[in-house]
Amino acid sequence: LRFDNQVRVVVFKSEVKGVFCAGADLKERAQMDDAEVGHFVKRLRNLMDEIAALPVPTIAAIDGYALGGGLELALACDLRVAASSAKMGLIETTRGLLPGAGGTQRLPRVIGIGLAKELIFTGRQIDGQEALSMGLVNHTVPQNSEGDAAYQRALALAKEILPQAPFAVKMGKLAINRGMEVDIASGMAIEGMCYAQNIPTRDRQEGMAAFREKRLPRFTGK
Q1: Staple partner for 203: which of 98, 128, 165, 185, CB 3.0–4.6 Å?
Q2: Are 44 and 90 in contact (CB under 8 A)?
Q3: Is 92 a catalytic residue?
Q4: What's a BP term from Gene Ontology annotated to this protein (predicted)?
Q5: 183-218 as b/e, with b when 16 or more CB fall inside 10 Å?
Q6: In the predicted model, is pLDDT for residue 26 greater than 80?
Q7: Residue 181 is among the residues annotated as catalytic for this protein
Q8: For 182-219, how does the pLDDT look when each residue is reduced to its tens digit (9 = 90+)?
């Protein structure tokens, strides 16, 4: 996906009704020794980092349970859409663990330190409406009879992104992600570098021409 220039948006969904991702298989985990557990979690953390580093926007469609590593997967995405009946939580402390695939870092960056500590310390599960009120998800929708309401809303969100200039969207994502990790002066410099890369693109010229000619732009990603 990273190297496919035809990809504009990536939506993560489950093929299992009622479950987005239930997290680690604890029966499997119980068969591992300490070294194997450490290696497994390191690989999982690397996977989440790879998802977070995808250059195009990513959307998690949470139509059911997103627990432990499942919520960490959703947190690695740029945007999250949940069904109102979905259940989310970093439940690791209820199993004698702590989040190990990015949860302790990404959750506070999304909802703030206080709420993140509360959810991680208690291992509490919340539904889609609570997640929306905390800012954990961008949108919450009532579940439908097919059980894919969040996926349908995620597709609608993706279709809002698709017509926009692909390179500009990628640079916007890069500027936000890098800028959030530094002070604002450094962030402004990062924005400037991303903007400079966008100036010579054909899409920028097309956007200006479309505005002048009062028509919709036809972006190509170049």
Answers
A1: 165
A2: no
A3: yes
A4: fatty acid beta-oxidation
A5: eeeebeebbeebeeebeebebbebbeeeeeeeeebe
A6: no
A7: no
A8: 999 999 999 999 999 999 999 999 999 999 999 999 99
Count Cα atoms within 13 angstroms, Cβ side, for 152: 10
Secondary-structure class of domain 166-213 per CATH: mainly alpha
CATH of 10-162, one of 1.10.600.10, 3.50.50.60, 3.90.226.10, 3.30.1300.10: 3.90.226.10
Of the candidates 61, 72, 101, 158, the residue annotated as catalytic is 72
Query: Of 69, 70, 100, 128, which one is the catalytic site residue?
Result: 69
Is 24 known to be catalytic?
yes
Q: Of these residues, 23, 70, 76, 92, which one is catalytic? A: 92
Give the tens place of pLDDT for each residue, 67-84.
999 999 999 999 999 999
pLDDT in tens, 81-116: 999 999 999 999 999 899 999 999 999 999 999 999
